[in-house]
Each structure stands twice: as structure tokens, then as C-alpha cells.
Amino acid sequence: DVKVTQSSRYLVKRTGEKVFLECVQDMDHENMFWYRQDPGLGLRLIYFSYDVKMKEKGDIPEGYSVSREKKERFSLILESASTNQTSMYLCASRIQGSYEQYFGPGTRLTVT
Amino acid sequence: QKEVEQNSGPLSVPEGAIASLNCTYSDRVSQSFFWYRQYSGKSPELIMSIYSNGDKEDGRFTAQLNKASQYVSLLIRDSQPSDSATYLCAVNMDNNDMRFGAGTRLTVKP
Asked: How many CB atoms lie within 10 A of CB B87?
């Protein structure tokens, strides 16, 4: 079974803090994704990575950056957290050439 | 126009009934379609994928695809209270981006 884990289920941070969200997958998947999910808006893609050291902007990259130094780990960084970044953050991975994505449990981030 | 549209619901059906969930998409050349189930407070879980026109059955679930009309649906037969969740439609676009609908919330009443 594919296993995607995220570092925290719940996180509370203050405005202006730098926030790190970690995602690890154990199935040697090349592709990894970061989404945020908000009521009524569905899943929106923030960044994705096709392989180590590679990154591509998604639909809403502003205020975020990512890092992929190892194949199994994809980190999302909020450079200076703001209240409008309060959301559920979901990491996903998939094998190269497949369209089926597998999601981690999510991190519910609250920025106060 | 949103790329993937779903009725947000809530859709309420009695236990044992057939639940029908619909999704339309805008990209005519999309080839891959998926249904995810998401329980409250949990992450999406892939339950069905469909790539060809017609029906695909997996247990109580049937996915239906009509590329000419640009819609994909999910039927759940003999609905159970445990099927109560939000169902997300996902479409792989021509540029290989995956686009998700906002989801339809289904409630199955005992």
C-alpha cells in the first residue's frame, strides 16, 4: 500500500512566522504535489515536483515555496504566514506515467 | 466556467437506494477521470478511475463516462450510511494537470 505521511495533523502559527510542512512517501514515487483545500473551492494546486530538485508552480503559488532535496520528501514553506493561509494542506504523490494520486492525511493549519 | 463542476449538494438518499453523483468538465481532450471519497476531516481516497466511454463497475460502485457530453458520473448502489462523505470528481487535463471539482456531499439516512 502507498503510504504518504505529513508531519503534523494540526498546526497553529502566528502571522509572520515561517512555517514548514513536511510530506514523505514510501513508494518511490517521482511526482509529488501540494494542495490546499477550502470549503466551496475544492482542491487547489500550490506546487508540484516531477522529480528530485524539480519544482513547478501550480495555480496559487504566491506566498509559498517548496523544496525537494530527496525523492521521498517534499516540503512546503510559508515564508511569512498570513491569516488567509489558514486552510487544510494536502500532500499527494503518484508514480511517473500514472494519473492516480495518493493523498496524505492532511495538515490543518490555523494562522492567527 | 470552472474546469470541473459538481453539484455541491447536500445529496440525501435513504439507505438501500441508488445515489447518483454527476460531474461535468470543460476540457474536451481529457482522457482520465477519477472519483475520490473524502470523509469529514480526512484526506481524499481514490475509489474509481475510468478512461473509456461507457460504464465501469467495482462492487457497489459504477463510474459512467460520456466524453461527447463531457460528463462523468458515479452511481452507488445499495447505499449505506458508511457511504456518507464528500465525493470529489477529478479530471486529468490535456496539459497533464489534475483538476478537482469542489465535491458533492452525500448523506445516506438509515
From this structure: 25
A95 touches chain B (CB under 8 A): no
> Residue A104's closest chain B neighbor by CA?
B43
The C-alpha atoms of residue B63 and residue B32 are separated, in whole angstroms, by: 12
List CB contacts of B60: < 8 A, sequence separation 6 or more.
Answer: B76, B77, B78
Over the stretch A21-78, which tens digit does the pLDDT of each residue have? 999 999 999 999 999 999 888 899 999 999 999 999 998 999 999 999 999 999 999 9
Q: Is A97 in CB contact (< 8 Å) with chain B? A: no
Strand partners, A35: A45, A90
Omega before residue B10 within 30° of 0, cis: yes
